[in-house]
Every structure is written in structure tokens, then in C-alpha cells.
User: Fold Thiamine-monophosphate kinase from Flavobacterium beibuense F44-8.
Amino acid sequence: MIEDKNQQRTDLGQLGEFGLIEHLTQNIEIKHSSTLTGIGDDAAVLDFKDKKTVISTDLLVEGVHFDLGYVPLKHLGYKAVVVNVSDICAMNAKPTQITVSIAVSNRFPVEALDELYDGIKLAAKIYDVDIVGGDTTSSQKGMILSITAIGEADADELVYRNGANDNDLLVVTGDVGSAYMGLQVLEREKEVFKVNPNNQPDLDAYTYLIERQLKPEARKDIKELLKALEIQPTAMIDISDGLSSEIIHISKASGVGCNLYEEKIPIDPQFINVCEEFNIDSTTVAINGGEDYELLFTIKQSDYDKIKGNPNFTVIGHMTPESEGTHLITRANTKIPLKARGWNSLTENKE
Ligand SMILES: [Mg+2]
Assistant:
């Protein structure tokens, strides 16, 4: 489906490991004063002075986490940075540096890694993080990509998963479910392409969903937004595995229950249309589909007026005593226990 536009193929062996690292990391600038030494020594040196340091790492394996049949390498690089930056944002911290490690088989030419790095560098620019290190090595088969993100925050700004209290409001940013349906569209088009490689897919009706899947964005803006509104969330997490799973994570860590209201869950009109087309229940996908990279957090009831009517935020439920458990309250007012089904298991259960 994705056309191979690479005319030139430079074998990785031509550059060698050191040559390749030098080639990929040329023109990388350092912008943060907390980066004392970046790429070029045995280790990076960072200085956060009196701030706390936040670190998160993620491993992406070809065939498990991504399919190069429909994920362009530039998008893969971009998304790999975004998912890590999102975890830093989920701590209410500011992302400042990343390290990038890749293992590739010799089926990839240098030009392919250039594309991957173009995506990584673009995300680093947009999210204002310094690339301060990493490693490049060969793999027997396929591509493995690991990114570590580092961030900073004042101790009293950090938000953990375990701070939610009974009666706190449950709030989500943006909308949910679209990234999962984007994946369904791409999987379907891949099958069509296998049968007829000349068939150029018409994806106009799916642009938002596909963008949510291939080029998600981390909510780096939320920390500042909440600060301006004088709201300190009591607990926070990013939505990587699905709303339901993340609610259960916060509830378990905080020792509370939760009521999530079906009618409040923010979903996009295009998402609703495509769920109908696929004959799949939109609420099921909205709560179980993952990879939205929106933020889910809890606030005190007394902060409600500060976010009321703000288009960035939707109150979707409230926390309850732990003994009441975690439930979805449907439009018909029935109570269904939430299950921790990530999007991987949802895919496996798909008929
Ligand atoms: Mg996370």
C-alpha cells in the first residue's frame, strides 16, 4: 500500500556501525540547558538542579508492535518518540531528552534508516527534546526500536497513579477510540492490497482515524493548561492500552472504585461512522481500543468549575469507595464491570 519511493539503496555494511551512528546523528542540536553533554562521549551528562528527574522507556518490535506493510518509517520514528513523551506527560512532567536505540537486519538500506530518523528528529523538534544518546546494532530479523524519554518537574507538580480519592472527578483529554479504528482500516486495506496490488485505496473517509493511528500526538500541552487553571490532578495516566485498562490502573493504585458514564465518553463523528461501517459497537472500542495517547486524570470535585466548558477536557465519571468496584454506567442505566482488555487482546478476540 505504501509505495517504496527509495530509488537509492546504500548497504548498511558500507558505513559500518560507527559510520552509521555518525551519519544518523549528524546535525543534532542541543537546546536544553539541562543537557550538559549529549551524543559524542561514553554517556550523556544531565543536570536538573533542584528538579525531579522522570524516566520512561519503551521497546517496539517489528511484527509485534508495528507492521512496516502500512506504517511508513518516518511515522514509526515519530510515533516511537511520541509514545515515550506521552509517559513523561502522564507524570505531569516536562519531557527534555530522549535516547534512541535501534537494531536492524541488513534488509534495510541506509536510506530507510534516514527516513526513520527523519521522523525521530521531527518529533524531537516538535516536542522540544534533545537527542542525547543511543545505540545502533544489527538484528537477525526485522527491526527493534527502543526509546528512553527523560523529563523534569518540581516535586510538588508530579502526579502519580495512586492519588485518586473517593468523589474525585474522572477527566479525559481529547477523544478516544479513533486510533484503534484507524488500525482496523489499515489492516483491511492491507488485505485488499494483497489481493490486488494495483488497487489504490480511497482513504478520504478515514483521514482522522488513520492519523490518530499513524501519527498520534502526546498531550504535552496539558501540564501548562492545568497549571494556568490552578488545577493539580490527584492521579494521572496516559491512554496507551485503552480507557478501561487505565481506569482500572488508577483505581487499583489509588484504592478506589469508579463509575464511568457511557454517554459522557468523547468520541469523534468519523469514529462513529466507521464503527457502523465495521459493524462494531462504538462504546466497546472507545473503552477498549488503545493508543490514543490522551491523558486520563482525576481532580477534586471543588475544581469542577475551573474546567467546566473547556473543550480540552471531558468529565466522564467519578471515583467511588473501593468496595463499589469499577463500572461502566450505560445509557440504559445498567452497570457493567470494567475489564482490563488492552487493544492487543481485543485484536485477538476479533472475529
Ligand atoms: Mg503510560
Remarks:
- The chain has eleven helices and 13 strands.
- The pocket of magnesium ion is lined by residues 87, 90, 237-238, 240 (CB under 6 Å).
